[in-house]
Amino acid sequence: MLRKLFHVLALVLKELNSIRADPILLALTAYTFSYAVYAVATGAKTEVDHVSTAIVDEDHSELSRLIGQAILPPWFRPPAEISAADIGPSMDAGRFVFVIEIPPRFEQDVISRRTPSIQINMDATAVAQAGNGGAYLQMIVNQVVQTYATRAAGNPTTPSGAEIQPVNFAVRVMFNPNLKSEWFNSVMQVINNITMLSVILTGAALIREREHGTIEHLLAMPVTPGEIMLSKICANGLVILIAAYLSVRLVVQVWLQVPIAGSLVLFMAGALVYAFSVTSLGILLATFTTSMGQFGLLVIPVLVILQMLSGSATPMETMPVWLQGGMQIFPTPHFVAFAQAVLYRAAGLDVVWPELLVMAIISAAYFALSAMRFRRTLVVLQ
């Protein structure tokens, strides 16, 4: 047993020296877990944030002015006033995402209970902002119109002038009170990077041994295929886990100011189990290829499936039931659920242990399958 541990340790040191001697690989790892996380977290926002708006006021009444004054930051920029003839050219030029058109006699029709219409033109090329922003604008306009109509008609109101409502709603947004997309995107990007680099680095390490002819040297040494596999998994997994920890600490918490509610130690323990499974997956994929080009072509669709269908991009509940069940054979959905529970909801081991157990079982299965394929590969080479 001690001899096997010594063999694995010696091979791990060899792998770490190979990684250290590859500056491009180190630069890629550093970039992936630093600026790439920041860029994805802050560059692809889905919430409404200072969206450009304009108003075509054909009524020029007190009510139309109140509507314009109610459209405020941080959701929207203060609206610019344009003419009806400028709607098409300004939206064609991309100057405004929303243009609100208030028709003539709007205030008079509201007071007379004639239910007038307001037209909201939206640029749906920014589909998330258009959908959410349109709902916000409707809510703002409805509140202003309802308050104004109630006051003008003399109906029972509160001291502030708003109509008395039968129900008072208290909305509590949990785990992300400001609805910031970077709070979600940053952590999910760290998880995606762990997946991507674990698969690529371990698979590339095996392919590199073949292309350089050093796999024959390993076969001449008194080591087993399992020890060779384990050394590549440990060395590359160690580098990735260290990079992931620094990314969560420095990029997510310090740079992006994202609060981590749960235990980072528990998260890293789960990341260790997860990294073992995806590094084993990388070796498994490498055993089906003979060159880096083939490996790259095989890895790309696998990574796309793992990232798009794991719950990190869209909730698992939005997928067909058969697809949800099919994704359970991969470790990524379980790690995404584990990470969200620990980092966002401060879940403890008593809550997330089922996900850890499933990841451990999947890791053992992947390692056994990879070892079997790897042994067959070595037999062919011999």
From TrEMBL:
<feature type="transmembrane region" description="Helical">
    <location>
        <begin position="351"/>
        <end position="369"/>
    </location>
</feature>
<dbReference type="InterPro" id="IPR013525">
    <property type="entry name" value="ABC2_TM"/>
</dbReference>
<feature type="transmembrane region" description="Helical">
    <location>
        <begin position="228"/>
        <end position="248"/>
    </location>
</feature>
<keyword id="KW-0472">Membrane</keyword>
<feature type="transmembrane region" description="Helical">
    <location>
        <begin position="254"/>
        <end position="276"/>
    </location>
</feature>
<dbReference type="InterPro" id="IPR051449">
    <property type="entry name" value="ABC-2_transporter_component"/>
</dbReference>
<dbReference type="GO" id="GO:0140359">
    <property type="term" value="F:ABC-type transporter activity"/>
</dbReference>
<dbReference type="GO" id="GO:0005886">
    <property type="term" value="C:plasma membrane"/>
</dbReference>
<comment type="similarity">
    <text>Belongs to the ABC-2 integral membrane protein family.</text>
</comment>
<keyword id="KW-0813">Transport</keyword>
<keyword id="KW-1133">Transmembrane helix</keyword>
<dbReference type="Pfam" id="PF12698">
    <property type="entry name" value="ABC2_membrane_3"/>
</dbReference>
<feature type="transmembrane region" description="Helical">
    <location>
        <begin position="283"/>
        <end position="309"/>
    </location>
</feature>
<feature type="domain" description="ABC transmembrane type-2">
    <location>
        <begin position="134"/>
        <end position="377"/>
    </location>
</feature>
<dbReference type="InterPro" id="IPR047817">
    <property type="entry name" value="ABC2_TM_bact-type"/>
</dbReference>
<keyword id="KW-1003">Cell membrane</keyword>
<protein>
    <submittedName>
        <fullName>ABC-2 type transport system permease protein</fullName>
    </submittedName>
</protein>
<keyword id="KW-0812">Transmembrane</keyword>
<feature type="transmembrane region" description="Helical">
    <location>
        <begin position="183"/>
        <end position="207"/>
    </location>
</feature>
